[in-house]
Amino acid sequence: MPLELRRQRDGRLRPYWYARYEVNGKRFTVNLAVKIKGVPPASLSLSDLNDPGDTAFQCSRTEAQGKLNQIIEEARSKRNSTHLLERVYESKTGEAIESVKLTALAELWAKLPRRRPLNATYKQQCESSLDCFAEFVAREHPQVRELGQVTRKVAQSFLEAEARRNISAKTWNDKLKVLRVVFQHLLPAGYINPVATVPTRETETVFRQPFSPEELAAILDVAQADAFIRSILIVGMCTAMRRGDCCLLEWKDVDLANRFITVKTSKTGQTVSIPIFPMLEEELKRRANAITSPAPLPNRAGEGVKLEGYVFPEQAKMYLENPDGITWRVKKVLALALIPREQGGNGGQKSQAGQELPLALDEVQRRAAAHMATVTDESKRQRMRLVLNCYLEGKSLDEVVTVTGVSKTSVSNYLRELETGAACQIVRGRPDGRSAAALLKKSPELLLAKREHGLRRASVRDFHSLRVTWVTLALTAGVPLELVQKVTGHKTTDIVLKHYFQPGREAFRSALNAAMPKLLMAGSAGGASVTKGGLETVKPDLESRIVEARKILASMTAKSWKQDKARVLELLA
């Protein structure tokens, strides 16, 4: 249990005494916070009998030794108290307290019992946070090796270190929440959760914006050029399902005879029932008539998945292998449909949003065939036709290269030549010579919104906006909230109203004007008014009822709206 003199990186002597000691087989090194005084030995060796240092140095050494003895005594006392507590717990419960190593936190957290299997992405994020916590404690508090040794001070130091990394408030809160769960479930009964009282940081909620009916029409027009993503967009528009549920929709969940979809949502596990709208019915019937039997696809767990059960097998394959690919193709469609551009250019028709759109698929094929007829090289003409057919089926450039055996450079050259010869847009995401990426970079505000405190912009117009759009249009049109919940699968009305009901001001005003009693909108009702001096006024007894009705409406909540509605109707009857 020796005292130590330590040097700084520049070689100078550190101003404080250090010590190494061992308690119950565990070794510790601490800064004793006792200043070195006087002149130390020239060799800085405490065992140098010829040069023990001056009197002041020896006094500070004695003070440091006393501090070390105190630390060792406290450590042994704490260990004895802990051991006594463990013995009492074992005698009361018949179970021995198991020591949880910090290095095993991620593994033990993943094994906690849950109602549903963990999402792979969420599991990876939480395990990364727990590994980061274990590494921090091992580096900054090497004497703490077990979960039961983590104090409020240790946990707080980790959270403060994370805050200094300038991570977002949401990321910080996510780390805090997973630590709470770990301490709550892995600490023995009677132990204090060191992060139970730590408050979460204030976050900024940015709500997704719904699309207007005109924007939905523009999106569908642009999606005509990408049959791969158009089907998923139609499902999202008509069902309010999430991206993954749309891509992984199975035929067993579709009842075309009764025009209903009954599916268990992947996020919440709730079973929802959704009526099939005519536009979706046409798409599903078209898919049913073109069913194929593709080869099984290995999923993330390495097991084989038979794609013939999916309504959209190609989209299901991409979602399972590369979900970001679905996101990017949706962004490209939204960029072309929603970002304004100059009129004129490629001979396409105009969308309701005012920008140019590709021609219909049959017209593109007709023009391209006319150009290919002018190509004299028969082998080139066959390769060009094969490339065009694969590309118009919605395949990416890499997929076209794989299927046709034509080099990527030749595929690009063929498509550009066909586009020029046919005098219309063929290449997806490149209207007027500009890519969708360039359009998004030039006008990011239509799909993204700046956060006041966040590090990155928030997505406000994406695939999930179709879900917000469905809910907003349904509630604005007067569809009962309970029916909307049956479609979305939300357990509480608060979530629907807070996160998904986002009407614009004019839509809000129009809906209220149409739905609310004329008495509240105009201030009078039929024979309920009298004229004084040419001005129409409300009768006194009715006026008091209106005042009462307004009070009820002002205090109305999502839970009380049924009772409040009945009271208002009774007052105004």
Describe the structure.
By secondary structure, this protein is mostly helical. Helices cover 51% and strands 8% of the residues. It contains 23 helices and 12 strands. The chain has a 3-stranded antiparallel beta sheet with strand order 1-2-3. The protein has a 3-stranded antiparallel beta sheet with strand order 4-5-6. The chain has a two-stranded antiparallel ribbon with strand order 7-8. A hairpin with a 2-residue loop joins β2 and β3 (26-35). α10 (313-321) crosses α11. The longest helix has 39 residues, at 55-93. The termini are far apart. The model is unreliable at 293-307, 341-357 and 515-540 (pLDDT under 50).
- Rounded to the nearest angstrom, the distance between the terminal CA atoms is 89 Å
Total E-strand runs: 12
Molecular shape = extended
Largest sheet: 3 strands, antiparallel
Approximately how much beta-strand content do the residues carry? Answer: 5-15%
Cα-based radius of gyration, to the nearest Å: 35 Å
Query: What ranges have pLDDT less than 50 throughout 5 or more consecutive residues?
Result: 293-307, 341-357, 515-540
Helix vs. strand class: mainly alpha
Continuous helix count? 23
Mean pLDDT: 76
Helix content: 40-55%
